Predict the 3D structure of the following.
Amino acid sequence: MSDNWDAYFCEVEGSPASILVDLGMVEQAPLPGLSCMGYVAVDLKDPDENGFVRRKEYGALAALEDSLVEGIGAGRGIRPGAEGDVDPAGECSAVYVGRCISAGRCEFFFYLASTDGWERRVDAALGPLPSYPWETGAHEDPDWGVYLDFLYPSEPDLLFIQNRRLCARLRDQGDDLSKERGIEHHAGFATEEGRAAFCAAARAAGFAPEFPESAEEDPEPVFRVLLRRADSPDSIDEVTLFLAELAEEHQGAYFGWCAPVTM
C-alpha cells in the first residue's frame, strides 16, 4: 500500500457511493504476481438516507476494516522501493487497494497472488467480529480492472480531489476561501494551434493568458500557457473543470492552479 489515499463521491448502479482508494498504487498497477481480485462485503447496520455509514457506526466499521487488513496481512509482502515486487518468501501475497460504500453495503477490495484459501483467510481475520455477517469472493483480474476502472477516480473526480487538497492547505494557513483573488492556471498543448484555440476560448471567459517557455523536464515540446483570472477557491471546481475540458478539446492537458493566501 502507498500513503496516498483519498475518498470521493460518485454514483454506482444508480446509487450514491463513497469510494476510498489508494491513489498511489496507480503508478505500479498491476503489481506483478498479484493477478487475482478478492473482495469482502458487509451490510451496514443502520445506513443513512443515502445508503452511507452513520457517525455512530463508523468506529465499528473502521475496526472491521483494520482487522481485515491486518489479519490478511495486506501489503506486508511488498518491499518499499521495489516497485511492488512480491516478497519471494511469500510471507504475504495480498495488497489492500480500497473500499466502496453504497446502498447500505460496504465492500473491501484486495489483490492476491492466488484465490486459493481466500475465504479461509477472511474467516481467520474476521472471526473475532461475528456481529457483521460477511460474504466474499475472488476471481482472476490480471489487468487490475476493478482497481483501475472502478475504484480509481475519473479525471473530473481526480481533479476535484486535487482541488480539495489545495484548498485544505490554504485553509490551514488561515485563508478565507470565499474571497476572490488572482488565481493562476497552467496548461500545455502538443501544438501551437491547439494552444491558440484554447486561449481564444479562455479569453472569451475572462482569462488573461501568458506564454511561458517549455520546461526542461518536458519529454517532448509542450506549448505551455499560464492563465490568470480573479476567482474564489471555494468555487474552484467549476473553474478547473471548464479549463480541463477546454484543454482536452484542443488536444492539451490542464496541469493545475495556484493562489496566494488571502485572509
